[in-house]
Amino acid sequence: MKIDKFSKEILQELKIDGRISNIDLADKVGLSPSACLRRVQELERQGIIKGYRAILDNRKLGIGFSAFVTVGLSVHTKDSQQAFEQAIEKSDEVLECHNVTGPYEYLLRVETADLVAYKTFHTDVLGDLPQVATISTHVIMESTKDERK
Amino acid sequence: MKIDKFSKEILQELKIDGRISNIDLADKVGLSPSACLRRVQELERQGIIKGYRAILDNRKLGIGFSAFVTVGLSVHTKDSQQAFEQAIEKSDEVLECHNVTGPYEYLLRVETADLVAYKTFHTDVLGDLPQVATISTHVIMESTKDERK
DNA sequence: CAATAAAGGCAATTTAATTTCGTGGGAAGT
DNA sequence: ACTTCCCACGAAATTAAATTGCCTTTATTG
Fold first, then answer.
1. Closest-CA residue in chain A for B142?
2. Nucleotide nearest to A25 (CA to C1')
3. Residue B89 forms part of a structural domain
4. Straight-line distance from CA B36 to C1' D22, in Å?
5. Scanning every residue of chain A, which has its alpha carbon at the shortest distance from the alpha carbon of B59?
6. Is there a single domain that holds both residue B24 and residue B84?
7. Which residue, A69, A88, A111, B136, has fewest beta-carbon neighbours within 10 Å?
8. What does pLDDT average to over chain A?
């Protein structure tokens, strides 16, 4: 099955409300509940829908500090990269880790309770990795748009 | 109601699978379905759960190009910032827009079908905004970690 | 220690998800 | 152009889940 108009609409709605009932979804896209459900299940089976996530309010949960952190490595071997990635994988503070082109190798998204907690992360996690050469922090003051939240 | 052990577990599970059935969720956290449901609804009412989203596989949907883009403004007035933010708001290619500290003002996350489409965005959207002074693109080669996807 | 409030569990009810089955419309082949 | 076949549809029945009402338990406080 290819992604036609109906499936596009289904994905669009599920991106907005991943917990919409199948009946309401069917109604919105103009299909019967059974046809709609079959499409959703097929999209899941194909891996086009990878999953569903609840979106939490970090502020209300005590997360008061978010930043992007760029990291440059001193060595660029495969081993060195893997070691870094493994260390990052373990760290709860790091929500995202992207390997990017440009003057530094990695762009991280980090979230902590406050600046003090960030400093700890900065020193104990990043500062402790031998392959890390440069660290630059860009504190998020405001997120004007965040469609993935 | 404060966030006790049960609610923490509920949030944890919903972050992983936002569409888990209430019965399964109740079972996982060790509550009865009714008690569990009341907690979830309370968390939603308090805005701690902001919503639910389906997570899609962009690659399978024809998104082959993702990048972080830093933007510096030539003017730093409130008006200028608002004009920029409004333009960004309208752009489908921009998934995130963060106002950050550092040598540039904004960090964007942009996704397009391919490099050609990105060039169009770069020229027609960013290049067309009078307040934009500097643009720097950091292509994502790989995302080692992305807990928000 | 009793009163009261807050949260829990059970069971009944409402609502939704899922399955089954028959039908129609379009594609492929003759 | 006709026939066959297949795919996806919708309707209805069935199964399962969400939700509600009510009573019980637990925890708090005067």
1. A99
2. C16
3. yes
4. 18
5. A48
6. no
7. B136
8. 95
Q: Residue A122 corresponds to which tokens in the numbers above?
A: 């900065």
H or E stretch covering A16? helix A5-16
Pick B148's closest partner by Cβ from A16, A18, A96. A96
pLDDT score for A2: 75
| Strand nucleotide closest to residue B6 (CA to C1') | C7
Asked if the Cβ–Cβ distance from A148 to B147 is below 8 Å, we say no
Residues B65 and B99 in one domain: yes
Identity of the residue numbered B57:
D
- How far is A46 from B59, CA to CA, in rounded Å? 12
Q: Is the CB of B32 under 7 A from strand C?
A: yes
Residues A64 and A32 in one domain: no
Q: Does residue A68 register a pLDDT over 90?
A: yes
Rounded to whole angstroms, the Cα distance separating A113 from A94 reads 13
Structural domain count, chain B: 2
The pLDDT of residue B71 is 98
Nearest-neighbour CA in chain A from B46: distance (Å):
9
Residues B34 and B97 in one domain: no
> Could you list the mean pLDDT of each consecutive 10-residue stretch along chain B, which spans 149 residues?
89 97 98 97 96 93 95 95 95 96 97 97 96 97 85
- A45-57 pLDDT per residue, tens: 999 999 999 999 9
CB atoms within 10 A of CB A51: 17
At A73-113, the pLDDT tens digits run 999 999 999 999 999 999 999 999 999 999 999 999 999 99
Q: Domain range for residue B13?
A: 5-45
| Distance (Å) of CA A59 to CA A63, A112, A114, B48, B145 | 5, 10, 11, 9, 22
